[in-house]
Amino acid sequence: MSLLFFTKNFPYVTERHRPALDAAKIVFAVAAVTWLAVRGTQTIGYHWQWYRIPRFIASVDANGLTPGPLIYGLGITLMICGIGLVLAMIFGLVAALFRLSESFLARATARVYLETIRNTPLLVQLFFIYFVLGPILDIDNFTAAVLALSLFEGAYISEIIRAGIVSIHRSQWDAAYTLGLNGFQTYRHVILPQAARRILPALTGQSVSLIKDSALVSTIAVYDLTMRAQEIIAETYLAFEVWFTIAAMYLVLTVALSFTAGRMESRLWTDVNPGGL
Amino acid sequence: MKSEKPDKPIIVAEKINKVYPNGIQALIDFSIEVKRSEVLVVIGPSGSGKSTFLRCLNGLEDIDSGRIVIDGIPLDRNKNHRLEIRKEVGMVFQAFNLFPHLTVKENINLAQKLVRKKTGTEATQTTMELLGKVGMPEKADTFPNHLSGGQQQRVAIARALAMKPKIMLFDEATSALDPEMIGEVLDVMKTLARDGMTMVVVTHEMGFAREVSDRVVFMEEGRIVEEGSAAMLERPLKERTKIFLNQVL
Questions:
Q1: Cross-chain Cβ contact A185/B114 below 8 Å
Q2: CA of B168: how far to CAs of A141, B157, B174, B197, B202, in Å?
Q3: A122 CA to chain B: closest CA distance, Å?
């Protein structure tokens, strides 16, 4: 296994997979974590009741398979994250282009947005949008949740996009302008496609953050995964079982996202390495 | 060697001044005219303002004062004028500046489709003709990273020619190439010159200057020191030109 840097193709590391060894490592890691959890709860005398969990996910009865509250919660979380991510990318792109604009007003607007969002807690923004702006603009808690999340992550994404854009060499602008492309065409066909593949890893990280941060929307009574979990815990006192279950569900979401992004990344770099990364 | 040439200048630069933000004055009251189908070679030491002059001609750099008119269109604050001029003026760079995320064919197609509004089929047809002209039709679907420097530069020339420009600017087009690849690029440039393209060529290739230039300009510190026919390279009048030519030959 090529551990760190000094492989022949650095930085395009082609890692050699050994399935048996990889599987053994995963089994070992899972065993270690389980052992730690079991030991930990033994010492506080926790009484595990995992058998009560499945019906909160789904139950089988005369009508067939009925989804439980956690699945409904997951659906809401997915919706919030899906719409939130698209909006966050749009806010991020616009803010990044504003910051790089020749117009002072555009730069100032982007700067105020960025600093306001990055220097205040997400929870406060969520409350502000729902409790202060909500009644004025007549928006419900779901919309407020999506708006707050996407504005928040959009600020971070804008800095990632800006870094990607300025990392593209000036000569690419020269070449595009010389061919008669205007500013928009240059961004659209020359600069952004090259920036996109450079910033994909950082964008993936930010998207994972968005999924995790979405748990906060339960504070304005959006029935997302976390809210459902809290509700179940209040009724059943199955705190550890429920928290672990939804942690696993969040993990499935984030891992799926990272995996998809990894596939996209190797597709985007075909010119450097035709076989993919 | 060349056929008839109408006398009306296609490039007019009058008393242009260019000061970079760091305070360096790259061009001082620089004036020159270039006729249709003329091949103008600009030589001079680095920092003499040769590249700046080229970059001003298609508006990549703004001038601080003076006047530039390209084929009757003034290069001024008007964005449309600038775009019009860029359509008519092709430029080839020292570092090729191909778009690395696009194949050779896509590189050459891009501006034809976006700026000349051609369909994909029309653009590809022109592209393949030009790739044939520069001797690499089999590389259409290759990415620039997989080409040699000489090949990349030939693609860059084809990309510029695809816009059917009236003027071609070459900014040290062979300076970044390995010696054995300089010839293949110069050959393409020579063919262009013979076909009657108006060219402004910044170069250190004195052989090229001797063979195809109609006029040679020697620049230093933002000014023209001496200008004349290719014969100037053999018998410069000014002492400074003599010293420079001795150094590069």
A1: yes
A2: 60, 9, 15, 7, 11
A3: 37
Chain A CA closest to residue B108:
A179
Query: Using a CB-CB distance cutoff of 8 angstroms, which residues of chain B are in contact with residue A190?
Result: 99, 110
Residue with tokens 């061009």: B27
Predicted TM-score of the model (pTM): 0.84
User: What proportion of chain A, given as a percentage, has pLDDT over 90?
Assistant: 58
DSSP for B26-53, written as a single string: EEEEEEEEEETT-EEEEE--TTSSHHHH
For the segment B106-123, what is each residue's pLDDT rounded down to a tens digit?
Answer: 999 999 999 999 999 999
Percent of chain B with pLDDT over 70: 97
pLDDT at B4 > cutoff 70? no
Question: Which residue is closest to A194 within chain B, CA to CA?
Answer: B101
C-alpha distance from residue A72 to each of A133, A220, A229, A234, B98 (Å): 28, 17, 11, 18, 50
Flag if B114 and A189 touch (Cβ within 8 Å): yes
CA distances from B93 to A54, B22, B67, B89 (A): 66, 23, 24, 13
> Token pair of B22, please?
């760091």
For residue A277, pLDDT over 60 is answered with no
Query: Number of residue pairs across A and B with CB atoms under 8 Å?
Result: 69
**DSSP string covering B50-71:** HHHHHHHHTTSS--SEEEEEET
Q: How far apart, in whole angstroms, are the C-alpha atoms of residue A206 and residue A216? A: 16
CA-nearest residue to B106 within chain A is: A189
- Residue A267 contacts B, CB cutoff 8 Å: no
